[in-house]
Amino acid sequence: MSRASVTITLTGAGGQIGYAALFRIAAGDLLGPDTPVRLRLLEIPQGLRAAEGAALELQDAAFPLLEDVELTDDPGTAFDGANLAFLIGARPRTAGMERGDLLAANGGIFGPQGRAINDRAADDVRVAVVGNPANTNALIAQSNAPDVPPERFSALTRLDHNRALGQLSAALDVPVSHIRDVIIWGNHSASQFPDVAHATAEGRPVPDVLAARFGSEAAARAWLVEAFIPRVAKRGAEIIEVRGSSSVASAASAAIDHVRDWVLGTGDRGWTSAAIVSDGSYGVPAGLVSSFPVTSDGRDWTIVDELVIDEFSRTRIEASVLELQEEREAVRALGLV
Fold first, then answer.
1. Are residues 305 and 284 in the same domain?
2. CB-based contacts of 128: which residues, under 8 Å, 6+ apart?
3. Please, which pLDDT band fits residue 2 given cuts at 50, 70 and 90?
4. Contact 232/164 with Cβ under 8 angstroms?
5. Do 30 and 77 sit in the same domain of this protein?
6. Is residue 188 annotated as a catalytic residue, yes or no?
7. CB 228 within 8 Å of CB 210
8. Residue 159 in contact with residue 129, Cβ under 8 Å?
9. What is the per-residue pLDDT across 250-281, written as a single tens digit (0 to 9) for each?
10. Does residue 1 belong to any structural domain of this protein?
11. CA-CA distance, 47 to 42, in Å (whole number)?
12. Which of 154, 11, 141 is nearest to 89 (CA)?
């Protein structure tokens, strides 16, 4: 028996990540094969034509689960009754743009969207911010939606999490499905910390497997510091260099993974990584949108607690959190939060 339909708002629908996500959502990859969906596509006026083309293709694909598609450039219309929202559209950093300029430009996008979510979305709305700088864009949107519980907002670090899994899989010659409990801490930026201290591969602690693979603990640590951590953190730049444009399909796939786990639950697969509003855990100041190890019961993200953090990891986490604090102070100075 089909469930009640779910209204999903997707911003930046005329862009490449939005395009890559739409067809998987309509096919049931997000919510499963028995949940109909209604899509609301939000674009700026200049992007409506591209979004219209995507809507025509969605119609031509004749997805049984797709009940309706509506295009608009009005946030109030787009978020009206939304149960789920993917905030993908964002202002990219261009040559000569200072960080403050980038934050101000995105404040002009995510502030109004937060207010529209506050005023028009469904009572059970959950919001996943994909557009970068994702953590601080999520903070801006959440701060402008005072009537929506803060825990309903999260930002995407699942792409970094998936990248870490892929790198470990290749290094250890172990299927991705046999690796669990990797962590991405902090900001979705080059300062992030991909942490394998608590991860396992085929049931064995990853640090032990790496030591056996590289011949010693020192060699394994060198690989982590010199190869693994920087490659995960800078993978987006590597992809741009190789293919001439940024990550698209992997970003869309990670966004779907993130929301699916949030809505359907992580089950017995271990934890994942998501940037959520901090409650002060692990010394991350309350209110920051920071990445943590999390599980979901199908309703809320829960931070995995009581993990032992060594000095090396603590230093890395604190550096990324400091960057988030600096971004928060910058948007506060601009009056965006």
1. yes
2. 84, 85, 86, 87, 154, 155, 156, 255, 258, 259, 262
3. low
4. yes
5. yes
6. yes
7. no
8. no
9. 999 999 999 999 999 999 989 999 999 999 99
10. no
11. 9
12. 11
The count of C-alpha atoms lying within 13 angstroms of the C-alpha of 112, restricted to the half-sphere facing its C-beta, is 16
The token pair that represents 155 in the structure block: 């930002």
Is the Cβ–Cβ distance between 35 and 6 less than 8 Å? yes
Burial of 216 (0-12, 13-18, 19+ CB in 10 A): exposed
Long-range contacts of 60-65 (CB under 8 A, 24+ apart): 61/23, 61/26, 63/23, 63/26, 63/27, 63/28, 65/26, 65/27, 65/28, 65/33, 65/35, 65/36, 65/37
Domain range spanning residue 254?
A: 158-331
The model's pLDDT over 138-177, given as tens digits with 9 standing for 90+, comes to 999 999 999 999 999 999 999 999 999 999 999 999 999 9
Neighbouring CB atoms inside 10 A of 240's CB total: 12
Instruction: Find how far residue 293's CA is from the centre of its chain.
Output: 13
CATH number for the domain that contains residue 97:
3.40.50.720
Mutual angle of helices 249-264 and 16-27, in 10-degree steps: 40
Buried b (16+ CB within 10 A) or exposed e, 256-271: bbbbbbbbeebeeebb
Amino acid letter, 46: Q
Is the domain of 140 the same as that of 187? no
Count the Cβ atoms, other than its own, within 10 Å of residue 87.
Answer: 28
Catalytic residue among 161, 188, 198, 258: 188
The bridge status of strand 66-72 relative to strand 37-42 is parallel
Helix locations, the chain, DSSP H = 16-27, 48-61, 75-78, 99-120, 134-143, 158-172, 206-214, 217-223, 229-233, 235-243, 249-264, 311-333
This prediction has a pTM of 0.96
Contact 9, 129 (CB under 8 A): no
Q: Is residue 231 part of a domain?
A: yes
